[in-house]
Amino acid sequence: MLVEVLNLTGKLINSRNTLLLLRNKMSSVVHYKSFTENFIFRQLFDATSCTYTYLLGDADSAECILIDPVVELAKRDFQLTKDLNLKLVYAVNTHMHADHITGTGYLKKLSGCKSVISRQSGAQADVLIDENDFITFGNHRLKVLSTPGHTNGCCSFYSDEQGIAFTGDALLIRGCGRTDFQEGNSETLYRSVHDKIFTLPPNTRLFPAHDYKGLTVTSVDEEKRLNPRLTKNLEEFVKIMDNLNLAYPSQIDKALPANKVCGLYDIPSE
């Protein structure tokens, strides 16, 4: 016996296929991992550059790291580490930013932490990282994935245990980093995302370096289905990126020189 189901127009339809479709749609909802009890996570925001800074900590060892800090908000970030009774061990950049000055230099001064960036970035840091290295804080660690294309030194950081990755400017929420300056290459970026990020488990939550619409998190599953650029084939993607016609980054002329030396000049005076 067929079951009657109301369609969107309010009319009755008889179809087992409709029930199967509804059931499949419900079962396609992605289940995400819960953070372990000793994992500390905070997402912070800079309204000027629309940059996200991430604080990750280990409650057992009290060690923590900051990812992509902004110089104007370094004191805020450092104060939060103290409020949470954490010791900052690393200030990490996903790449050499062009839209803001990194806060790593200021944080080194405030906390004595070490700065971290990709070896391929061409920037100075206390620790230069490569593909498959690990950034460790207490009992937790992030695996380094080389994801160039926006810049040569772009990295993403992945935690299998927590089911999360930090994608910098390589992959944004329903978007991606621009490729029209600073060593950008559309084909390289496309392959980085498809080979390194889209091959992670579908329920991996992705945290980008920026968002301009108020969104905070996405997932591998979402971006593989919904990203308007990266769901296209390579040829179409390159064409899209070649025709964005974006404005020249307003802070690039002061940001790049500072970020090449880990933000160790233009540090605000106390």
Structural description of this entry:
This protein is of the alpha/beta class. The chain is 25% helix and 27% strand. The chain is built from seven helices and 16 strands. The strands form four sheets. The chain has a six-stranded mixed beta sheet with strand order 3-4-5-6-7-8, covered by helices on one side. The protein has a six-stranded mixed beta sheet with strand order 9-10-11-12-15-16. Strand 3 and strand 4 form a beta hairpin. It is globular. The N terminus is likely disordered.
Helix content class: 10-25%
- Order of H and E elements: EEHEEEHEHEEEEEEEEHEEHHH
What's the mean pLDDT score?
Answer: 90
* Low-pLDDT runs: 1-16, 18-26
Distance between the termini: 77 Å
Strand content: 25-35%
Quick tags:
six-stranded mixed β-sheet; alpha/beta; 16 strands; single chain
Condensed summary:
The chain is α/β, with parallel strands linked by helices and 270 residues long.
Reconstruct the topology from this structure.
Elements: E1 4-6, E2 12-14, H1 16-27, E3 39-46, E4 51-58, E5 63-67, H2 74-83, E6 87-92, H3 104-111, E7 114-118, E8 127-129, E9 134-137, E10 140-146, E11 155-159, E12 164-168, E13 171-172, E14 175-176, H4 186-197, E15 205-208, E16 218-219, H5 220-226, H6 234-242, H7 252-260
Parallel strand pairs: 5-6, 6-7, 7-8, 12-15
Antiparallel strand pairs: 1-2, 3-4, 4-5, 9-10, 10-11, 11-12, 13-14, 15-16
